[in-house]
Hints:
By secondary structure, this protein is mostly helical. It folds into two domains: 7-53, Homeodomain-like (Arc Repressor Mutant, subunit A, Orthogonal Bundle), CATH 1.10.10.60; 56-194, Tetracycline Repressor, domain 2. It is built from nine helices and no strands. Helix 1 (13-28) packs across helix 2 (35-42), helix 1 (13-28) packs across helix 4 (56-76) and helix 5 packs antiparallel against helix 9. It is elongated, with a radius of gyration of 20 Å.
Amino acid sequence: MATQQFRTPSDQIGSEVLAAGLAILEEEGPDGFTVRAIATRANVAPMAIYNHFDGKNGVLEAIWNEGFEQLRMDLSSSSDDPHADVIAAGLAYRRFALEHRAHYTVMFMHHFVGFEPSLDASHGAARTFQELVTHVERCQALGFFGSHRATNVAQMMWATSHGYVALEILNINFSDDPDATFKSLLNGLWSGLAR
């Protein structure tokens, strides 16, 4: 007697497909990220991915959007101490990258052939970067980073943090205390740029 296969209800397809895509990126990396693999993992027909997401690139864009929105929220927290907020934003960036590696892969670590984020998706990424710029501007209002444009400081902080995190994700971090080393890196950036 043939076993009956149960498919995912249509109102759950979006979340199931995204969860499947993220799991594949975590476990197999970008090479395993195919429509067929996602469909099998999500227990949907491949055509459902085309119908709901317009194919693999649509799934990638959904992961991109979800990742940048989460990162934006993580970076946006602020207090009455702008200096502490800049350091906290750097720590939040690293925490996001390490806890959401599949999202981070799509956002920063791998170029998927044929995938180009839409204009809306690119604007979402820019809004995330603006959170860091805003932290720098709040510091400038107190006299820090006076000789630099806020965008340039934010870019240097982002690039430095990404470099550290990317090496860490690739297991090329030889620090005996990666947390403390990253904090020292952020404090070094502050000391070098803020005054």
